[in-house]
Amino acid sequence: MLESLFDDVKRMDKRQFVYQVLSFGMIVSSALMIWKGLMVVTGSESPIVVVLSGSMEPAFKRGDLLFLTNFEEEDIRVGEIVVFKIDGRDIPIVHRFLLFFLKICSIVFLQFLTKGDNNSVDDRGLYAPGQLWLDRKDVVGRARGFLPYVGIVTIVMNDYPRFKYAVLACLGFYVLIHRE
Question: Is the whole model's pTM more than 0.90, yes or no?
Answer without folding.
Answer: no
